[in-house]
Amino acid sequence: MDKPLILVVGGAGYIGSHMVLDLLRAGYPVITLDNLSRGHRELLPGGDFIEGDLGNPADLDAVFSRYPVKAVMHFAAWSLVGESVEKPLAYYRNNVANTITLLEAMQRYGIGHFIFSSTAAVYGEPRETPIAEDHPRAPTNPYGATKLAVERLLQDVSRATGMTYSILRYFNAAGADASGSIGERHQPETHLIPLVLQVAAGTRESITVFGTDYPTPDGTCLRDYIHVSDLTRAHLLALEALLHGGDNSIYNLGNSTGYSVNQVIEVAREVTGHSIRAQLAERRPGDPAVLIADSGRIRNALGWRPEYERLEDIVRSAWVWHRKEAGEE
């Protein structure tokens, strides 16, 4: 039996491109819609592509009138916390208003399944760790607030229309596909692992460690890193559950293990064989000491298990990609 067509919005971005690759490997036909403002056409691994804007109803009509889309996977949000603080209106427009436009188009064409890429930022300052899905949601920045707004929007739309959804809240996505063909490329880059590897590759002078006086074993922040391929495999399991009549769901995605900033730097030194210069700085406002996911719900409900549980393996996969980006391979 042929598998249904899936629309991936934001499929030319970091996580979106890995999602497209996993869908294609699983035998799904895929159409990507991306305006390429932050994505990269050359990183898209296959399927059909339409350059268009999520906020333009005519672009959505062009997709839905031409393609028999069965489900939509949404990776087109902006995700820079600092930028969201500086430009809240732009973030609410892109992350919330454009999602409303997408949901209206889905309703016009009777498309009833939605997979949403959400974030641990909806929780805000953790009251307890590891963080479970029923932890209070109190985002501390506009980025997290826009993601939470869409989560609530999906719940309301589902009650009104019967659309089913799965919300996946993930912690720190990292790594690259094992093929080395696609990986993380952001301008500007804000994620720790690629920043550290850019130092190893010689494209950045040093890595800044913000705060060494946190209540953690070595004084630096602890974060839960999840490999991007484990992330997309979880999205695929959530999608297939909906396609087979599953109920609405919300899942955390993480390895349920915390690694400190210093540990990441040391592992990167071991993996790359390079001396990585680190410089110390004051804490950044709003950085929690510890962010670790309780991912027991998706493990129990869908049988998801991360394949990349060791930080060394996550960093090694990213290093293959970043060497290629730096022209070393």
Walk me through what this model shows.
- Strand 1, helix 1 (14-25) and strand 2 (30-34) form a beta-alpha-beta unit.
- The chain has helices spanning 14-25, 57-66, 81-86, 88-108, 142-161, 192-201, 228-243, 261-272, 296-302, 311-325; strands at 5-9, 30-34, 48-51, 69-74, 113-119, 164-170, 172-174, 207-210, 222-223, 225-227, 249-253, 259-260, 278-281, 290-291.
- The protein is globular, with a radius of gyration of 19 Å.
- The strands form four sheets. Strands 3-2-1-4-5-6-11 form a seven-stranded parallel sheet, with helices on both faces.
- The protein has 329 residues and is α/β, with parallel strands linked by helices.
- Helix content is 39%, strand content 18%.
- It has two domains: 5-174 and 225-253, NAD(P)-binding Rossmann-like Domain (Rossmann fold, 3-Layer(aba) Sandwich), CATH 3.40.50; 192-224 and 256-325, UDP-galactose 4-epimerase, domain 1 (Alpha-Beta Complex).
Order of helices and strands: EHEEHEHHEHEEHEEEHEEHEEHH
What coarse outline follows from CA principal-axis ratios? globular
Largest sheet: 7 strands, parallel
- How large is the share of residues in beta strands? 15-25%
Q: Going across the biggest sheet, name each strand in turn.
A: 3-2-1-4-5-6-11
User: Counting H and I runs of at least 4 residues, what is the number of helices?
Assistant: 10
Can you identify the CATH class of the largest domain? Alpha Beta
Oligomer: single chain
CATH architecture assignment name of the largest domain = 3-Layer(aba) Sandwich
Number of DSSP E strands: 14
Class inferred from helices and paired strands: alpha/beta
End-to-end distance, in Å? 41 Å
If you average the pLDDT, what whole number results?
95
